[in-house]
TrEMBL record:
Stated name of the protein: RNA helicase
Entries under Pfam families matching the protein: AAA_22 (PF13401), HA2_C (PF21010), Helicase_C (PF00271), OB_NTP_bind (PF07717), WHD_HA2 (PF04408)
InterPro entries tied to this protein: AAA_22, DEAD-box_helicase_OB_fold, DNA/RNA_helicase_DEAH_CS, HA2_WH, Helicase-assoc_dom, Helicase_ATP-bd, Helicase_C-like, P-loop_NTPase
EC number: 3.6.4.13
Length: 682
């Protein structure tokens, strides 16, 4: 048991949830779905919501987690006729998992087959029927892509942007575009919903500018003044427990908290929020290795984006009798999900967040404290079908004083290259004048335009180039990776670049077992290539196929079997996209130089050279170091490119590959020029 928190002792740190008052407390959930629906707080607001949607172009709805926003409002709209005449009601979610689970739930509540009246679309999977589907759940990213085919989204009568507090890049772009679409389609209604959104600033964003009102635009149709509705009432109680003292190691504290719950609390599954694949794998290992009585009866499941879909979907499978399921997740389970068995939530208080510095052009993934809004979302995964408990692995003082109310919108802390490509592909060329819900820093915008220009994605007039720019827009990956794929095609190694793109899209293919570093290093040596990590990955992938995709082979070689399944899945998806773009798979066989040139053509902005024993980025002379996980750690070749940087005590390059400096001039003559043996970035 953790020494920081004493569950089950006389005076646990029991603190009521912020808002106090509980409306529906029951320990005997109804068996009838219809009765369950009627008990949800949102049910009492049905008429009010329909009135507001009828009369306002945009309605902002705030209601506690679990109050019924996502599952009920689309059904109210359907019942009120918003899906008549072939029109469709859309409800967006920030993540694929929640799209699938809420769609399945709504289909069940309506007694229809999923994919008929109620369907969903996520990247690479469309479970809808044109002319039949009335309510469609989809990720905000997918809705953005639909705009490329149908810029005014004409088939939708109402679009509900759910979990809008997340303020992901896609959500913000979508909000900006939906506002624009409404000028052309006054009949389109928007609903913006969340438990933790700043309703006032969202309303201010959707308020029409004075100038447009004066010009007499949009005279017809609903009032342009957005409505705000606050849905009062909660689901079941969630008791919140805080640590008495800060935890020095949240991973170990999480593990001891899980074991304490298992030991002392009545049955019920546990959902644990950690930060990423590495600490989740470590926690799974600590729990599964603990062969004592304390952990017997636990069914431990990891959940993060680097898992194959089949492995992610295990979280929805029923918990076997006499077992307690423990799901250890990143924040992908933070919003919208209802996992029926979950009674206990353990919140580490941290997540991995992107922070981009446009001056140095460095994007870091940093483990940082979450916001109060995220903490409330995490707690809200309990108390949905019965009362629950949330154990926060931080002190109440930390919650009150250190955690910000809302996180910084992703738009203001990210590299904007991909967003700009998306807008340009939609024909929006004046990016600086775009109406953003939270404008990004002009420096970030300029930096992104500069990089896109160097990659040959946009031209001198900042328009998408043909074909490269339009092709890059079609590939749902970072522009650098997409450019690598296109260059691989031209150089005759599309097969290799697609494999590596799939591997780079997950955090790590290696199993890092605490205390087994030496064995892991030895395993890596079996595949290690002098050219660096990218070529090493090709060796691993080939050997994995030769093993017949064997889990035992993975285990023996310290390779994460789940990660490899995900690689195969992603590779298949990328191959299909490539095929659509006219790119056939072609291998350069053993010619690693050709392959490395293709990688350099995508990642030349991440070139570094060794100077006096330290690496400096060629563009900004920023000091960086090779990450110990790289096969080039301690090898120190003169010239390298890297895929990403992580910031811990210093900047570490992850996924590093050797290059020849002349490849940089070939790849980006606008950026690099070679003066005899010296090398300058312009
Ligand atoms: N798959 C499910 N199984 C059982 N009950 C469910 C399921 N999905 C939803 N529910 C019930 O419906 C309630 C409302 O869920 P819904 O997702 O609509 O709430 P919400 O207000 O959108 O919450 P959040 O803000 O957390 O997304 C849940 O609290 C739960 O009682």
């Amino acid at each position: 048991m953790s020494r920081f928190w004493k569950p089950g002792t006389e005076r646990p740190q029991l603190v009521d949830d912020e808002e106090g008052g509980v409306i529906f407390v029951s320990s005997t959930p109804s068996h009838s779905i219809e009765k369950q629906r009627q008990r949800l707080p949102v049910y009492k607001y049905r008429t009010h919501i329909l009135y507001l949607v009828e009369n306002h172009a945009a309605t902002i709805i705030v209601g506690e987690t679990g109050s019924g926003k996502t599952t009920q409002i689309p059904q109210f709209l359907n019942e009120a006729g918003w899906a008549e005449g072939g029109r469709v009601i859309a409800c967006t979610q920030p993540r694929r998992l929640s799209v699938q689970s809420v769609a399945a739930r709504v289909a069940e509540e309506m007694g229809v087959t999923l994919g008929d009246e109620v369907g969903y679309t996520i990247r690479f999977e469309d479970l809808t029927k044109p002319g039949v589907t009335r309510i469609k759940f989809l990720t905000d990213g997918v809705l953005l892509r639909e705009m490329m085919e149908d810029p005014l989204l004409t088939k939708y009568s109402v679009i509900m942007v759910d979990e809008a507090h997340e303020r992901s890049l896609s959500t913000d772009i979508l909000l900006g575009l939906l506002k624009k679409i409404q000028c052309r389609r006054p009949e389109l209604r928007l609903i913006i919903s969340s438990a933790t959104i700043e309703a006032k600033s969202m309303s201010a964003f959707f308020r029409p500018s004075k100038r447009r009102e004066e010009k007499g635009a949009d005279k017809l149709g609903p009032t342009k003044e957005p409505a705000i509705l606050s849905v009062e009432g909660k689901g079941f109680t969630v008791q919140t427990h805080y640590l008495e003292e800060p935890a020095s190691d949240y991973l170990r504290t999480a593990v001891s908290t899980i074991l304490a719950i298992h030991d002392q609390e009545p049955p019920g599954d546990v959902l644990v929020f950690l930060t990423g694949q590495d600490d989740i794998d470590a926690a799974v290992q600590l729990l599964t290795e603990d062969n004592t009585r304390r952990s017997s009866g636990l069914l431990v499941l990891p959940l993060y984006s680097g898992l194959s879909r089949a492995d992610q979907e295990l979280i929805f499978s029923p918990t076997p009798r006499s077992k307690r399921k423990v799901i250890i997740s990143t924040n992908i389970a933070e919003t919208s999900l209802t996992l029926e068995g979950v009674v206990y939530v353990v919140d580490s208080g941290f997540s991995k967040q992107r922070f981009y510095n446009p001056i140095s052009d460095i994007e870091n993934l940093v483990v940082a404290p979450i916001s109060k809004a995220s903490a409330r979302q995490r707690a809200g995964r309990a108390g949905r079908v019965r009362p629950g408990k949330c154990y926060r692995l931080y002190t109440e003082e930390f919650f009150n004083k250190e955690m910000s109310a809302h996180g910084i919108p992703e738009m203001q802390r990210s590299n904007l290259a991909s967003s700009i490509i998306q807008l340009k592909a939609l024909g929006i060329d004046n990016i600086l004048g775009f109406d953003w819900p939270a404008p990004p820093a002009p420096e970030a915008m300029v930096r992104a335009l500069e990089i896109l220009y160097l990659l040959g994605v946009i031209d001198d007039d900042a328009k998408l180039t043909s074909p490269v720019g339009f092709q890059v827009a079609e590939i749902p990956l970072d522009a650098t990776v997409s450019k690598m794929i296109l260059s691989g095609h031209l150089l005759g190694c599309s097969e290799e670049v697609i494999t590596v793109a799939a591997i780079l899209s997950i955090q790590s293919i290696w199993v890092s077992v605490r205390g087994s570093q030496k064995e892991l290093d030895e395993a890596k040596l079996r595949f290690a290539a002098a050219e660096g990590d990218h070529v090493t990955y090709l060796n691993v992938y080939k050997a994995y196929l030769q093993s017949g995709k064997s889990p035992q082979w993975c285990h023996k070689n310290f390779i994460n079997y789940q990660a490899m399944k995900k690689v195969v899945e992603t590779r298949g998806q990328l191959t299909r996209i490539a095929h659509r773009l006219g790119i056939a798979l072609k291998s350069c066989e053993k010619d690693t130089e050709v392959f490395r040139k293709a990688v350099t053509a995508g990642f030349f902005t991440n070139a570094c050279r060794l100077e006096g024993g330290v690496y400096k980025t060629v563009r900004n002379s920023q000091e960086v170091h090779i990450h110990p996980s790289s096969v080039l750690f301690r090898v120190n070749p003169k010239w390298v490119v890297y895929h990403s940087l992580v910031l811990t005590d210093r900047h570490y390059m992850r996924n590093v590959m050797t290059i020849e400096p002349s490849w940089l001039t070939e790849a980006a003559p606008n950026l690099y020029q070679q003066k005899s043996s010296n090398f300058d970035a312009r």
